[in-house]
Q: What sequence folds into this?
């Protein structure tokens, strides 16, 4: 028999009370589960805009301001505006990955990109190897930038390509040695890192590549069968750290620490040209850009193009130079306040800057749309 008090069924009230308690318990469990997932590490890293450096400006070294580019033994000329290189900051690594909460927040921010961990940190490549490769890539980009700049202004130079070291377990282990000079690939002469990589990529991985080398002053030919590199953007490689050694007619010193990789090459070259030639290359405009550079002036694609574009905006740039091969990644994301031009060569970039300086017809120049 049910008991009634003031017209309320006590048994039914108890049942509803228990249901509410169960509901609150389930809600609490769900919330704790969501919160737990939010703080768990994800299999991603987050790319976001990093520091911006003006190649015409200065950087801080040991507490002192020094020019980013110095050419001590040649006449240089005052310039105006800025030619800024851009970087990407990566949040996360294999040891410390961003949480799902951080990933979700980055997905909602157009200035950030969420990318798989292995696309930035390929499996089987140690942190030490990755840092060393990044350092060598930066050194190579600086040397090739100097070479490209001198070519653009008609200054001759000499160059050789040499092996820094074969990578342990790589295709060249036991075949190539440190300090070997690479003279040719499949009978074609090579003078810079970009040309070497292109020749190996063209050879592919199904047949050996024939390398003409000099070792201890003796010429010889060796064969190495390329393998695909690790990671999603796999390309044929022969498993060596390689560098270009140039004999330039004068010294060009580039001071930029704690930045690695080859993507600043084009902006280094433009900064060098601007310092070595009278007037301002861009007429005092605020310009930013990115792209690898080869000694012959070819501009190559880079990573993190969207983040670098937003870094350019934050730095107050009006003009942005993008490698042609990266333009597809910018579709639908170019802000109105930034003019983005596509360049395939250093000469293309110079043409954009000179048109800006002369207040010419920019509509005739190719853009990233």
A:
């Amino acid at each position: 028999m049910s008991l009634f008090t003031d017209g309320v069924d006590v048994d039914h009230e108890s049942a509803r009370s228990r249901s509410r308690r169960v509901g609150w318990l389930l809600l609490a469990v769900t919330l704790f589960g969501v919160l737990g997932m939010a703080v768990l590490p994800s299999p991603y890293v987050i790319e976001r805009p990093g520091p911006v450096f003006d190649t015409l400006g200065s950087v801080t070294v040991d507490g002192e301001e020094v020019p980013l580019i110095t050419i001590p033994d040649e006449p240089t000329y005052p310039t105006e505006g800025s030619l800024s290189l851009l970087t990407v900051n990566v949040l996360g690594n294999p040891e410390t990955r961003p949480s799902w909460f951080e990933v979700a927040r980055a997905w909602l921010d157009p200035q950030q990109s969420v990318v798989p961990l292995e696309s930035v940190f390929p499996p089987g490549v140690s942190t030490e190897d990755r840092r060393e490769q990044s350092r060598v890539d930066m050194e190579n980009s600086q040397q090739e930038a100097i070479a490209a700049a001198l070519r653009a202004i008609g200054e001759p130079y000499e160059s050789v390509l040499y092996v820094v070291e074969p990578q342990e377990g790589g295709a060249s282990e036991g075949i190539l040695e440190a300090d070997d000079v690479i003279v040719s690939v499949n009978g074609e002469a090579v003078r810079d890192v970009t040309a070497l990589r292109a020749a190996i990529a063209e050879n592919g991985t199904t047949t050996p590549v024939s390398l003409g080398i000099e070792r201890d002053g003796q010429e010889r030919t060796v064969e190495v069968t390329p393998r695909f590199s690790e990671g999603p953007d796999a390309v044929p490689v022969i498993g060596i750290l390689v560098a270009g050694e140039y004999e330039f007619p004068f010294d060009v010193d580039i001071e930029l620490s704690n930045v690695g990789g080859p993507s600043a090459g084009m902006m280094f070259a433009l900064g060098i040209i601007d310092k070595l030639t009278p007037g301002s290359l861009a007429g005092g405009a605020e310009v930013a850009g990115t792209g690898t550079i080869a000694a012959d002036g070819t501009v190559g694609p880079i990573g993190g193009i969207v983040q670098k574009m937003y870094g350019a905006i934050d730095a107050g740039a009006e003009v942005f130079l993008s490698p042609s091969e990266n333009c597809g990644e910018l579709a639908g994301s170019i802000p109105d306040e930034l003019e983005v031009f596509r360049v395939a060569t250093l000469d293309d970039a110079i043409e954009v800057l000179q048109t800006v300086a002369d207040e010419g017809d920019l509509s005739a120049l190719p853009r990233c749309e």
Notes: Residues 158-247 form a domain with the Pdz3 Domain fold (CATH 2.30.42.10). The two ends are 79 Å apart (CA to CA). Confidence is low (pLDDT under 50) at residues 1-10. The longest strand covers residues 44-54.
